[in-house]
Design a protein that fits this description.
By secondary structure, the chain is mainly alpha-helical. The protein is built from 18 helices and six strands. The chain has one domain. A two-stranded antiparallel sheet has the order 1-2.
């Protein structure tokens, strides 16, 4: 599983232009115009929509006799995809302690996830096959850095206008019985924040443009490094100035999101990058970390941010629910350890009683989603040991394969993947976090292929 195969079948087809270029627009348009896709109600759906043109262009290139490369360790990912498909056969099973249901009722969400995994596979292969002439790495890095700016702006919007929302064009086109479903709303209904009672009263937690507060926090960690690389590796003085401004401003929504997973993720990212630079002999990174840490400490003491952090740490309402769901996921894994159950399930009742459930007055009481509180637990429960090994094996192999990449792009990309490994304990990856993970992998892969690893 350690090879990076190339694929070439036959010669150029009659009438097909030799060595057709892969245009950059399918990837670039997703990233550059994501706020527009979000406002239109397409959001994460744009990845599935763009997968069609990307797949067509890849097939056209192969038909013309051009080599089609697959990423190193791709066999691991194929194992994961096969497990996703095979596990659909277990959708009719009802693990102990979960709400009984029929496979047909679970097929749509399972099919949606399978479609998104397939779409992001196409994105991975397409982005990795783009050449420097077709989509320069610096442009891709800047597009990812731009999305960090978008994330910060969305966070500020969630802070100052937490109730901001509107009906998207796509939402208008859907029947009322469909668009009013919670899952559909998360896909097509743009809103600035999720209103949650975390520290004693209901407060807005930034979500725009990523749909969920947890996804917002996950993407914050995955994209932060790209802004730094875009400014310091490829930008000038003005770019560095505005990058610093953005990073300083980002502290406010990061804190007010009350997202402990984000705080941990940033810590993991900083430690990882610092260790990589120290090992490369760049000891100045230690001074930079100390200065940044001191400035953060001052801001927490001198502003209301410290009070917010303290209140969040004193209110761990979600801890019990997370522990409960982890236990249910591990129990389910023992019941079907090889292929899992094909998707998530809802618990019977809550932590303390099976009679507690959702109601109009308490939508978050009981009936919790097993596998909805972290990618690792979802992999184990939904796709068993085989799917989990394939998923983790692919990214872990990438980290090992490209471990000698000491370039700024390589450190940022591997840092994003390392951060995602810690995040999978409490965040789910579909769709945008996994998209940014595969793009980070693609940049490592291209760096290695083009010999730019120092």
């Amino acid at each position: 599983m350690s090879q990076a195969p190339t694929v070439a079948v036959g010669g150029p087809a009659h009438g097909v232009r030799k060595n057709p270029a892969l245009p950059a627009w399918p990837v670039a348009s997703i990233l550059a115009f994501y706020p527009i896709w979000w406002a239109l109600g397409l959001g994460v759906l744009i990845f599935a929509l763009m997968a069609g043109p990307m797949l067509f262009l890849l097939i056209r290139r192969r038909a013309a006799g051009r080599l089609l490369r697959l990423p190193p360790g791709f066999a691991w990912w194929v194992v994961f995809l096969v497990a996703v498909v095979v596990s659909i056969g277990a959708l009719g099973a009802d693990p102990a302690g979960t709400v009984a249901g029929h496979a047909t009722g679970r097929l749509l969400p399972a099919g949606y996830k399978a479609l998104m995994y397939a779409s992001l596979t196409v994105l991975l292969v397409y982005a990795g096959n783009l050449t420097e002439a077709e989509l320069p790495k610096r442009r891709l890095v800047k597009l990812l850095g731009w999305l960090f700016v978008v994330t910060v702006l969305g966070g500020l919007l969630g802070m100052v206008a937490g109730n901001f929302e509107f009906t998207s064009p796509v939402e208008w086109l859907l029947p009322g019985s469909v668009r009013n479903k919670g899952f559909v709303q998360s896909l097509v209904h743009p809103y600035a924040a999720q209103i949650m009672d975390i520290v004693g009263d209901s407060q807005p937690r930034p979500a725009a443009p990523w749909g969920y507060t947890n996804t917002w926090g996950n993407n914050f960690c995955l994209l932060a490094g790209w802004l730094v690389v875009a400014a310091w590796q490829y930008g000038g003085g003005k770019a560095k100035f505005w990058a610093v401004v953005c990073l300083v401003v980002s502290v406010a929504p990061a804190v007010f999101s009350l997202n402990r997973g984000l705080w941990i993720g940033i810590g993991v990212l900083v430690v990882y990058v610092a260790v990589r630079y120290v090992l490369a002999g760049k000891l100045w990174i230690l001074g930079a970390v100390v200065v940044a840490g001191a400035l953060l400490a001052v801001s927490l003491v001198a502003t209301p941010l410290g009070t917010v952090v303290g209140a969040r740490l004193d209110n761990g309402k979600s801890n019990g629910v997370r522990s409960f769901l982890i236990e249910r996921a591990l129990d389910g894994f023992q019941g079907s350890p090889v292929i899992g159950y094909g998707g998530t399930r809802n618990t019977l009742g809550g932590r303390n009683s099976i009679t507690v459930g959702e109601s109009a007055s308490c939508e978050r009481c009981g009936n919790f989603t097993v596998g909805g509180n972290g990618q690792l637990w979802q992999l184990l429960f939904a796709h068993g040991a085989v799917g989990t090994a394939g998923y983790l094996g692919f990214f872990a192999y990438g980290l090992w394969r490209f471990r000698r990449d000491r370039s700024a792009v390589g450190v940022a990309a591997s840092g994003a993947i390392v951060t995602s490994f810690s995040a999978m304990l409490w965040y789910n990856s579909l769709v945008t976090p996994l998209a940014f993970m595969v793009l980070a992998f693609a940049l490592l892969w291209r760096n290695s292929s083009e010999g730019e690893t120092t």
